[in-house]
Every structure is written in C-alpha cells, then in structure tokens.
Amino acid sequence: MSERRPPSPWPSTVPSRQVEAPREAPQRRNNDEVRIYGRNACQAVFARRPHDIRKVYLLESRLGELKTVLAWCVQRRLGYRVVEGADLDKLTQSQHHEGVCFEVRRRPPLTFSTLLQLLPAPPKPALLLWLDGVGNPHNFGAVLRSAANFGVHGAILSQDSALALSGAAYRVAEGGAEAVPIAQVAAGEDVFGPLRNAEFSVAATVPREGESLYTARLPRRLVIVLGAEGGGLRQGLIDRADLHLTIPGSGAVESLNVAASAAVLLGEYYRQQQAGAPRRERG
C-alpha cells in the first residue's frame, strides 16, 4: 500500500493516477481502535467525531467522493493510503467495505446513569432499547440502524454483555451506530429503579402469550427489552417487566430474529407517537 500526504493547500483536482499498492496482511492496531468500513458508516464518523479518525484507507475510485475527508487528514497530518480492493478485503476481513476503511478511536459505552441524564425529562416521550445477551454483530448493527431510523434515544447493554461495536456492526448499521448512544450496565447496578423514577415503563418482548403489539397502547416513555437470538430474554427480566409484548404472525415460524423484531417494535411505537402528535395546520 502506498501512503499519500499531498501538500497543503488541498489541490483543486484529485490526481487521476496512483502508484499500485502492494498486497499487505492486516496490520496490528491498538486495542482502543477499530476499523470501520462502508461509505455511510465512515461518513457518519467523519460527520460526528472526525477527531477520532487515526488513518484512512480507500480505493482510487473514492478519491473524489472523500475529498473533504482527505483534506482533513492533510490539515492534521494524518496518514491516508490509496489501496487496491484486495488490500481492503484483508484490512477489513470483508468484501463489503465499499472502497473505504477508517481506523478510528474506539468509543467506550456510556455509564447507565450518564445515558439517563441525556434523555428528555418527563413527561416528554422517550424510547430506549435494552439488549439482553444479543451477541451477533450483524444483528447488533441492524438493530442500531432501525434504532437510528425511528429516533431511539439510547441502547442499554446488560452487565454481562461482551458485545462491542465491531467493524461489521458499524457497516450493517449504515451510520446508525453514531446516532444512538450506547450504555452498559455495571455489575450489580439497579436498572429498574432508576428507569421507573424517570417514569419509564419496561416492555419485555416474548414470542407468545404477550399482548399483541398491534392492540397495545404503548407508553410514551418506554424501554423495549430484546433477548438473545437463541434463548430469548432471561426469565428474571420478563418477571419484572411492566408489560409483555408479542408480535403476531402466521405461526409458520416461532418468532422473528432480534433485528427484525426490533424494526417491527420500533416502527409501531413510532407510528403510535406520530398518530398521537398534534397535526400541523396547512398555511
């Protein structure tokens, strides 16, 4: 791979010819960094926290599209490298990189108490997701994409969750990972007490025998709890929840996976909130 550090000021045209980059194995990086790839994921990082970018890898075909990003790199003496597709395949361990990869400082999860401080105060509506044992990074990314689309105010990870935002999760989230604050519960920390003090209701999602999502009137301040792909929610969480929701279906399969369930649940909450919002009069 050949490193580019063009002179400043940024040239008015992007060079059309580049030296062919040699094939390289993925380089080792610090534990506090993650490789994020995919156009929307990388652009979201640049839009929200460009100071966390450490290095940029891209195909020659992306030079024009990422001109602003590369100018940022030049101004701050950050390296960027024009590489071949096979190099990006190795760097990202994926063929779905869309021609760009950023090495980015990893953003640690918030504390649960910090997340609560960021939320709208009662009685304003607010929506949280609580992920209990979700471990598949692709599902995690898909959940965050839906959460960003429907305006979720934050995601809570259980205290024993080892789930971290990987490059694959960022890629599937399509920028949603930057839009949704993520908090992790500390060992022994009470979650239900502070949530109820903040006037939240907790809804456990169950595959059967819960109230139908489409007949339930969802509280304006709501925490939706989603379980692991295999075992579902822990019984202790189900028992302590204020309501139990089931997504009705044909019965041909037992249930939707966690990412599909999240999209359906969040979409219904959003629909109900929009239906209850005052209508704007046309001027």
Question: What would your notes on this structure say?
Answer:
With about 280 residues, this protein is an alpha/beta fold. The protein has 2 domains: about 1-105, Ribosomal protein L30/S12 (60s Ribosomal Protein L30, Chain: A), CATH 3.30.1330.30; about 110-275, SPOUT methyltransferase, trefoil knot domain (Alpha/beta knot, 3-Layer(aba) Sandwich). The chain has 10 helices and 13 strands. It has an 8-stranded parallel sheet with strand order 6-9-8-7-12-10-13-11. Strands 1-4-3-5-2 form a 5-stranded mixed sheet. Strand 7 (about 125-130), helix 5 (about 135-150) and strand 8 form a beta-alpha-beta unit. Helix 1 crosses helix 6 (about 165-175) and helix 5 (about 135-150) runs parallel beside helix 6. The longest helix is centred in the C-terminal third of the chain and has 19 residues, at about 260-275. The protein is elongated and about 55 Å long. The termini are far apart. Residues about 1-25 have low confidence and may be disordered.
Order of helices and strands: EEHEHEHEEHEHEHHEHEEEHEH
Number of strands: 13
- Tally the structural domains: 2
- Average pLDDT confidence is 88
For the record, the CATH class of the largest domain is Alpha Beta
CATH architecture title of the largest domain: 3-Layer(aba) Sandwich
> Count of helical segments?
10
Shape: elongated
In short:
By secondary structure, the chain is an alpha/beta fold. The protein has helices at residues 39-48, 67-75, 85-92, 112-118, 137-149, 167-173, 176-179, 192-197, 235-240, 258-276; strands at 2-4, 33-37, 53-59, 80-83, 100-105, 110-111, 126-132, 154-157, 182-184, 201-205, 211-212, 221-227, 243-246. It folds into 2 domains: 2-105, Ribosomal protein L30/S12 (60s Ribosomal Protein L30, Chain: A, 2-Layer Sandwich), CATH 3.30.1330.30; 110-276, SPOUT methyltransferase, trefoil knot domain (Alpha/beta knot, 3-Layer(aba) Sandwich), CATH 3.40.1280.
